[in-house]
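User: Quick sanity check before I run a bigger batch. Here is a single chain. Can you write out its predicted 3D structure?
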Amino acid sequence: MSKVPMRPTGKSSHDIPKSDQLMDFMSQGWAPSPLDDVRPARVVPFASERRQKLSALFLGVRLVIPSGTFKVRSNDTDYKFRPHSAFAWLTGMSAVDAIPDSVLILEPTHTGHESLLFIHPRSPRDTSEFHSDRRHGEFWIGRRLALEEAQVRYGIPVRHIDTLENYFESRKNNCDSVVLRGHDPVIDSLVEKHKKREPLLLSALSELRLQKDSYEIEEIQRAVDATIRGFDEMVSSIPTATSVPNGERIIETVFFGRARLEGNDVGYDTIAASGSHACVLHWTRNDGEVRPGDLILIDAGIELDSFYTADITRTIPVNGKFSPEQRMIYQLVYEAQQAGIAAIKPGLPWITFHNAAMAVLAAGLEKLGVLPGTAEDSLLKENGFHRRWTVHSTGHMLGIDVHDCAQARQESYREGVLEEGMVLTVEPGLYIQPDDQLFPEKFRGIGVRIEDDILVTANGAEVLSKALPSHPDEVEAWVGKLLG
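Assistant: Done. Predicted structure follows.
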């Protein structure tokens, strides 16, 4: 086993040394301050069941799931911590309680696995960590859960992270250990690499999340509802956005405020793409003008404290009314999305809803006279000409990651079938680049995407984001009402 790396210290080059007398004084005169209202979190039984499902796939194998560690933004300034999604899913630990360097271990037993959670608990007042450690000290970053408090809240036996190395040393010959590798160098050094089992663990942790439990569905709906409120506020901010040179950032900032008010953060960088910027699929610079007469494509989602996120896109006329050309492209995308949603049924191949949307887009592009042949020809795998204007897939899984279950095997995801309890997006788009000479000039620079969040039900599809208008007439009425 290689030498265990040292974790970075929580000290800075400009810290002023403390005298021994001050250190002693700082450790005195503190009243006990336990949390009096700690109770089991709502997620506890769901997280327990998730661990049992993972356990059944790896009987006799020790599973090591790190939360991840700090990521440096600049010198001694770290990015805001977000635990690895698999760790959050298996423990249920929320953003408020998430602690860098934590580790979940599933220790094999005769009947399955015992869960153990290793964390860096709150700072003891009788140590210098309390006031001198910028990464962990309570004086610096606030209170964390004590060991006993974390155990009550999440229903898992909890130990101090400082005991983890001895834990591994005392059990190194008991059984094989498999780690979710690449997220904590200290943990990677403590667990021997298994080239075959580690990819299996990675894919299992994605595939077990393909179908959502009732807790997850409720959280995603809450994230969607909060995101819809954010969209209302973004539309209301359009007059302010049109008054400054980089108005896209007004839109972005308004949504961030709603995300921090109702959740943990945005689920991903907000796209506020006005005019031809809408033809850049992941436009996140958001430094452009918001001009009356243009469309603005907004792709945004709020991530809750539980880490579940929404992912919604609307393309909005800045002045409240679509031009004839804008409406023509928007209507085509809208009809493609409706066809995709209608094609969602449990038991059908995953690709069915994508194909349904593409058929509508290809037919529309044929009518517009831009395809080199017929829509039928374009839809052949060896051609795909319509994809010049719609290069991305029509949707993806959604959950604790915005692109959820990304490490699932192809046969379980893209080549798999739709199943009840899956949550996914349906988001066709058409993007006519400003220099695209195959389209008449009046269409150039128009980009439209419409995205909704969908729950696969026993009968088909439930649109979780249906409260947000998407039909062009409804969009105009919505924008007109908010802008007065």
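The chain has a mean pLDDT of 96.

User: Great, the batch can go ahead then.
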